[in-house]
Amino acid sequence: MTTKRLKKLLMAKGLSRNQVNRMVKEQRDIGSKKVSNALYWIVAQKHINDCGPELLPCLSSLVLK
C-alpha cells in the first residue's frame, strides 16, 4: 500500500488532511521502521472506530513502535 493510498483511506474515515499528514510524519520520524502502511491502516482503522466521531477532531497522532 502506498502512502498516498493510506492518507486517502484515513481521510475517508473522517480525519482532516492536517491530522493525516501529522500522523504519517510522526510515524515516519518516531515510530518503528518495520511497520508497513498496511499494518498502520489496520491499527488506525480499529482505533478510529473505537473513539467515535465526536473525538476525531481531538485525534492528533498514532505511533506504532
Q: What can you tell me about this protein's structure?
A:
There is one protein chain. The longest helix has 15 residues. The protein has 3 helices and no strands. With 65 residues, the chain is an all-alpha fold. It is globular, with a radius of gyration of 11 Å. The model has no long low-confidence stretch (mean pLDDT 91). Helix 1 crosses helix 2 and helix 1 runs parallel beside helix 3.
Describe what is shown at a glance.
With 65 residues, this protein is mainly α.
Give a topology summary.
Blueprint: H1 3-12, H2 17-29, H3 37-51
Helical content (DSSP H or I, runs of 4+): 55-70%
Tell me the strand percentage band: under 5%
The number of strands is 0
Summarize model confidence as the mean pLDDT: 91
SSE string: HHH
The stretches of 5 or more residues where confidence is low (pLDDT under 50) are none
**CA-based shape:** globular
Radius of gyration: 11 Å
Largest sheet: none
Number of helices: 3
- The oligomeric status of these chains comes to single chain
Estimated structural class: mainly alpha
Distance between the termini: 19 Å
Keywords:
globular, mainly alpha, 65 residues
